[in-house]
């Protein structure tokens, strides 16, 4: 009975994540690709958001979808090659969510920075070099996980070393203590640097917004509510995204630390950690769609055009 309850909660959780995350990320990607193709340009912040939507989508496909399939009783869904591909994709794309969210917060921090000579140089260089920055982030994450392509295998009747991560569908055998430790150190350094960067950048954004709010309060009463600028609203959205990520990352880390202190980890705990580790991929596109002006404009225009087309069709039919 307990097993059935766990699988029911698991199925509801991961199928909800897929139902919300896949369409919303696809919508964001489609809108930004359409803007890029029609206007021949894309704001740096929107280019970063499109990359975030892409890696979110791949995270859901590579982790959320297999977990959902497993929850309805289908086992042994991967062979060795598929295990390598899905494990490699998930780990790289989950790492990219950290890096891209950090890049988004740092970019917004630079936008809000005072127009000094140093900051002006950053403001000019980031848009020009954004493709190279993205490529560099991909290279960092690919370099961390070569063992996924070498040592990940489907679950089967074979002997593994004690340095093996027994995942739901696959086994990741690091073979040696040195490989196991090196991989852990590389991941920890990446996470510490990028999570720390996004946290510091967000703190600066919050400080800037607070200072801006105090300046607005000091204005004349007639000018007290001139309307929030695009930069102000974008900054609030970035801070919200970072807050969600840091909260989920902290929860994931706490569960991971707990698993290190017990001899036998409950399957429900493992499921919870995977769920919270994947949840950002479904929550962040909702925040983006709610707060990004270009996306909201396209969605509203699309809805209006559909309503007008429906009214026109009904009128023609009536006549």
Automatic annotation (TrEMBL):
GO terms for cellular component: plasma membrane. GO terms for biological process: response to pheromone. Residues 24-288 form the G-protein coupled receptors family 1 profile domain. GO terms for molecular function: pheromone receptor activity. It is a multi-pass membrane protein. It is found in: Cell membrane. It comes from the Eukaryota. The chain crosses the membrane at residues 12-35, 47-65, 132-152, 192-210, 238-260, 272-289. Its main location: membrane. It holds the Pfam family V1R. Keywords: Cell membrane, G-protein coupled receptor, Membrane, Pheromone response, Receptor, Transducer, Transmembrane, Transmembrane helix. Belongs to the G-protein coupled receptor 1 family. This is Vomeronasal type-1 receptor. It comes from Pelobates cultripes.
């Amino acid at each position: 009975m307990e097993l059935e309850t766990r699988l029911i909660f698991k199925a509801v959780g991961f199928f909800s994540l897929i139902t919300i995350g896949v369409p919303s990320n696809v919508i964001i990607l489609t809108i930004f690709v359409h803007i890029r193709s029609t206007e021949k340009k894309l704001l740096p912040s929107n280019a970063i958001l499109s990359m975030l939507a892409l890696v979110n989508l791949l995270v859901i496909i590579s982790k959320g979808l297999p977990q959902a399939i497993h929850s309805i009783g289908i086992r042994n869904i991967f062979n060795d090659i598929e295990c390598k591909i899905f494990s490699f994709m998930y780990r790289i794309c989950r790492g990219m969510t950290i890096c891209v969210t950090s890049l988004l917060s740092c970019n917004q921090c630079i936008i809000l920075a005072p127009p000094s000579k140093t900051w002006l140089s950053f403001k000019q260089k980031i848009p020009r070099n954004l493709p190279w920055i993205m490529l560099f982030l991909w290279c960092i994450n690919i370099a961390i996980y070569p063992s996924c392509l070498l040592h990940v295998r489907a679950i089967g009747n074979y002997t593994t070393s004690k340095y093996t991560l027994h995942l739901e569908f696959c086994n990741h055998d690091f073979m040696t203590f040195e490989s196991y430790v090196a991989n852990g150190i590389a991941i920890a350094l990446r996470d510490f640097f990028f999570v720390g960067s996004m946290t510091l950048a967000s703190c600066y954004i919050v400080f800037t917004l607070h200072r801006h709010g105090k300046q607005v309060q000091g204005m004349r009463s007639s000018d007290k509510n001139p309307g929030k600028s695009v930069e102000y609203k974008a900054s609030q959205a970035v801070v919200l995204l970072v807050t969600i990520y840091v909260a989920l990352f902290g929860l994931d880390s706490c569960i991971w630390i707990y698993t290190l202190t017990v001899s036998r980890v409950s399957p429900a705990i493992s499921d919870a950690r995977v769920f919270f580790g994947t949840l950002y991929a479904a929550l962040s596109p909702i925040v983006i769609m709610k707060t990004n002006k270009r996306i909201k404009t396209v969605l509203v225009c699309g809805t209006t055009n559909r309503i007008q087309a429906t009214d026109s069709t009904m009128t023609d039919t009536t006549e």
